[in-house]
Write a structure and sequence with these properties.
Blueprint: E1 11-14, H1 22-27, E2 44-48, E3 51-61, E4 64-72
Antiparallel strand pairs: 1-2, 2-3, 3-4
């Protein structure tokens, strides 16, 4: 397992999305609220190295915020060319 200790993964959580003009974004100050296209009970999307890998719910852990994973998304199996030169 020691080799796995050296692997870095960038984890991102997307709460929701919205569209707004850049000039509106630049005028926002501290405390401004951005309205997202999701409801409070909707799942957030969890990405590992820019690949969607799971969905989850936002949870409060005292004064910290966490994500509870509700669904792990399975990747489609990789398509490998069939060998024709004998047994595997």
């Amino acid at each position: 397992m020691a080799t796995f200790d050296e692997i870095s993964i960038d984890i991102s959580v997307v709460l929701g999305t919205t569209t707004m003009p850049v000039h509106q974004l630049l005028r926002m100050g501290r405390g401004a609220v951005i309205d997202l296209d999701v409801a409070e009970e909707d799942d957030v999307k969890i990405y590992a190295n820019n690949t969607l890998v799971a969905k989850g719910q936002v949870v409060l852990l005292g004064e910290r915020i966490g994500i509870s994973i509700t669904e792990v998304l399975l990747r489609a199996p990789e398509v490998r060319p069939m060998r024709t030169d004998g047994p595997l």
